[in-house]
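Crash report, auto-generated. Payload:
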Amino acid sequence: MSMRWKLLLMCVLLGAVAASAGAATRTASGSGTLSMLWFGNNGAGSFPVVLPFVYPMSTAVTATYSSSYDARTGRYNVTLQKLDEYVSVTNGTYGPCQISAGVSTNVLQNRTTSVLTVTRSSSGSTRNAYWTNPGTLIDGFTNTRWYTVTNPRLQTTASAAGYACTGWRNLTTTIDLP
Amino acid sequence: MTSKIALLATLLIAAALPGNASPASRESVDTKVVARVSGRPISAQAVALRAQVVRQVRQIELPAAEQEALTQLVREESLLALAEQEGVVVPVDTVRNEIAQMRSLAETAPDEDTQQVFAKAAEQYGLTAEAFVNDPRVVAAYQRAFTIAEMRQRLARRFDVPLTDDAALDGKIDALTKSSGIRVERNRQQ
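Recovered output after restart:
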């Protein structure tokens, strides 16, 4: 290979590196409280009573993001993978509210417009309820989607509700991608 | 969504506790019985209230919600009957501590709906939140709720069923109820 070709190849490689944002791991988390009402009575006299139950709730999501710019089309090629997500509800030592939870993820092309939604859900009634969906691949966006924006947002909403109890809570976490 | 749920909760509290009577005078409000578990009555009012919850949470129509509500209430009473047979009682001191922890968590929550949840429940009885959580009838109702949960946890361990597998655990509870001689009577006219 001649020196001219070597120089040309080097320029192309350097250009490709310069155009890529590189893979970056992004994390977001949120916390709040899940407040529910349960209808009970005191047994002997059947005194009807509405009992509040309040539990701590938290959620987090991790994702990797990388992009490269195509100068010819003026657009960004984005690769996005949600690596892990969870919602956790500490359901007290005792709790009559069997809790269901789920996490939905939206990819927003700008601050308000969603372009993709991925939802996973699960349920349980453990004392420390914990749900996770590791390695959830947002495949609609992996290596296939071209953005015209540089900073799409990844937004997850964790929801929990109590079976046999009123009330549910949504916790939203947002990752602003570079 | 949170404010919709708060509104629903307020309406349900109001439905559960009509008027402004004191807690003691409400003990005879609801006398229509739709089922009995070992003689313990399940009222039509309890089924109607639970059905509203089931309908909201599970997004199903009312007839199915009422059926599910009755099933839930029968299972809860069965768990209480099993707890009685096995001598399982959540101590009152434990109940009071749990209530205090939940109240503290509510009052320090970032959203106003959660902050007010005890005050609103108490308001229906014309009580302060402090008086509500110390009312012996309220403590007894919490104790029943905690005993139901304690029995679920014990039976999950006994039958080696994950607590997260509600359907499997419910099946075990129903089978144990039958084999333990706990009598479930449903009023077919309902």
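Post-recovery validation: The domain at 23-176 of chain A is CATH 2.60.40 (Immunoglobulin-like).
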